[in-house]
Amino acid sequence: MNFEGISRIQAVMARIKEIESRFTPPSQQCNGIEGHSFDAHLAMAMDQNLSAGGNVSPSQMYSFMNPVGMGGMSAWLGTVAASNPEKVIDYKGFRMQAQTAVKFEKLERLIAVKFPGREISITSSMDGKHMDPNHPAGKAVDFVVSGLTKDESRTVEELCSQAGFKPYNEYINSSPYKTGDHMHVDVI
Q1: For 57-69, b where at least 16 C-beta lie within 10 A, e where not — what string?
Q2: Which residue intervals of 24-149 are DSSP H helices?
Q3: Model confidence pLDDT, tens digit, residues 87-100
Q4: How far apart (Å, rounded) are the C-alpha atoms in residues 81 and 65?
Q5: Tag placement on the chain: N or C end, fewer CB within 10 Å?
């Protein structure tokens, strides 16, 4: 990517920040991840591009900036959850409250750091038969992590708590409707 391409990305990012400032409270505006400001996160992405020889496309550049690689889902979720946390949305094909999706997205990032390359799959949210009233309310999610051992599931339990969930480890424990090993989480 040449300097013209970088300038174009900077112009687009400036426009995004301008639009975002009109619709999002300052406390919710694109603060990046792990304490980095948006500008610092953009600078890191540009540095990665330059270290890659400047041959990264704008869409690849965007994926450097988007910690989950979901085409801006993080910003959208944060905005929806801030304005209406109980709004039921579709997240990866599963219906749940916006606040649940935001926390689950954070959990996915935590798991990806601790267990790189493992697939995280939601198995149930508001659907199915559940004893827990939080499932039909959109405040609970069942999920699996590929290749997870019972010992590793204890680590995932800790990550669930860090993401703002109360976990129930069905890799180790059981419940009446259990159909297989999985992790159940409720919004705290």
Answers
A1: eeeebbbbbbbbe
A2: 38-51, 58-65, 73-83, 98-114, 134-137
A3: 998 888 899 999 99
A4: 21
A5: C
Tell me: the pLDDT tens digits for 110-159?
A: 999 999 999 999 999 998 777 889 999 999 999 999 999 999 999 999 99
Helix axes 38-51, 3-23, angle to 10 degrees: 160
| Pick from 35, 43, 91, 92: nearest CA to 65 | 43
Distance linking the first and last C-alpha atoms of the chain: 45
187 has pLDDT over 80? yes
Separation between Cα atoms, residue 41 and residue 14, nearest integer Å: 13
Helix residue ranges, H only, the chain: 3-23, 38-51, 58-65, 73-83, 98-114, 134-137, 150-162
Residue-level pLDDT at 51: 57
List domains and CATH numbers for the chain. 3-65 (no CATH), 88-187 (3.30.1380.10)
Angle ∠(171,106,118) on CA atoms, nearest 5: 50
Phi-psi region of 164 (alpha: psi -120 to 50; beta: other; left: phi over 0): left
How far apart (Å, rounded) are the C-alpha atoms in residues 14 and 40? Answer: 13
